[in-house]
Amino acid sequence: MDEKKGSLGYLISIVAVAVIGGLLFGYDTAVISGAEKGLQAFFMNAEDFDYNDFMHGITSSSALLGCIIGSAISGIIASRFGRKPALILAGILFFLSAMGSYDPEFLFFEYGKPTLPLLVMFNFYRVIGGIGVGLASAICPMYIAEVAPSNLRGTLVSWNQFAIIFGQLVVYFVNFFILGEHIQPIVEEMGKGLAAIDPKAQWTVTTGWRYMFGSEAVPAGVFALLISMVPETPRYLVSVGQDNKALGILTKINGSEKAKQIINEIKETMVVKTEPLMTYGALCIFVGVMLSVFQQAVGINAVLYYAPRIFNDMGMEDPMMVTVFMGVINILFTLVAVFTVEKLGRKPLLIWGSIGMAVGAFGVAGTFGHAGLETITAISIMIYSASFMFSWGPICWVLIAEIFPNTIRGAAVAIAVAFQWIFNFIVSSSFLPMFNMHMTEGDDFGHWFTYGLYGLICVAAALFVAKLVPETKGKTLEDMTALWRNRSKK
Hints:
Helix content: over 70%
C-alpha cells in the first residue's frame, strides 16, 4: 500500500464484502417469485383452514414485515454496537431464515402436512429473514458511504444496488434450475388434493419451494464469515472515541495527508455524537422518507415478486425463462446507473427514470389482456423495470446513505428505510387482490387500474424530485450538515 495515496484495492475489497449483503437482500426478497405458486398449492390443501388469495398475499410478503422491524432497529444497533456487528447479525438471520423456510416443520410439526400452525411457523422464519434484509438494506449503503471517498461514494453505493439486482438474477436462475423439468401448479388445480395436480407439478408443491428457500443458506453463511473480517467504519470509530483506529483505516484508503483532513472534518461534525432528529428541520426527514415511499409506491416489487405469474397470465410458454431474461435486462440497466451517477448526478437519473417508468406502466395498463398485444405488454414491462433499475433502484439508496447530516444519520436512515419496507409490504400484499379485481364478470379492470395507478405515482415522483430533492453529487457527508442547516434557516 502507498501510504501517501492509499490503496484502491483495499477499498474495493472491503466494499465487495459489504455488497454481498445487498446480494442477499435481492436474493431473499426475490426467492418468493419462483416459490410462491408451489407454496400456495401446498397450503391450499390444508384441512384446518381456508388458504385464500388474501392469506397468500400476506404469506408472500411476510418477509417484508421483518424488513420493517429490521430497518426500524438498524439505527439503534448501528449506533450502539457498530456497523460491522449489525451486518454480522444480518448474515446470521439470513442463514436461520433459509434453513427454517426450507423445513418449517423442524421439531414441532409433521413433515409435509399443511396446517395453520405450520403456516404461522413458516411466516415466522420468513420474518426472521426479513429482519436481516431490513438491517442489511439500511446498513450496507451506510457502511459503504462511510468508508468511501466522496468522489467514489455514489459509484460504490450504486454497486450495492447492482448486487441487489444481481442477487435477484441469481435466484431467478437458481429457481429455474431447481424447477428443471417440473412445472408450476395450475391455479385451477390447487386445493383439490395432490393427486388432482399435474404429475409434473407435484414435486414443485411438495419439495421444490423448499429447495428454493433453502438455497439462500449458502450465500448467507459466506457473508456472515466474510463480514467478520472487514474493519469498522472510520466515522463510527470516531463517534466512540477510537480516533487512532479510524485514522489507520482512512490512511489505508485515502493516504496519510487526505486521511488527516477527513478525520478532522468528521470530528468537527461529531462534537456532539447525536442531535435531535429535527435539528435540521422537518424537510430533511420528509425528503428522505418520501424518497423511500416513492421507490416502493411506483410498484416495482409487484413485478419482481410476481414476475413468473404475470408472464404466465400473459400466455407465455416459459414464464420462468422470460423472468430470467428480465433479470438480465435489469442487471444491464443497473450498470447504467453505476457508471453515470457521478457524471450525470442523482436528480437527472431519478427524473428520467420516473418518466420511463410512467411510459412503461401506462403501456401495460393499456395492453394487458388484449389478444395480439402480448408483445407490447412484455416490452412495456421491460421498459418499466429497466427504467427503475437505472434510477430509483440504485439512486434512492445512494441518496439515503448520503443525504442526512452525520449526527442524525443513524436514526434518520432507520426511519427512511422503515418507510420503504412499509410501502413495499403495502404494494406487494395488495398487488394480487388489486390485479384480480373485476367490475363485471371477466373484465380487465384490475389490470389497467393497477398499472395506471403505478404510472400516476411515477409522474408524481418525477415532480417531487425536481422540486425538493437536493443534488448531492461531489459533496462530502460533512457538506450535508451545512446544506440542511442553511435550508432549515430559510
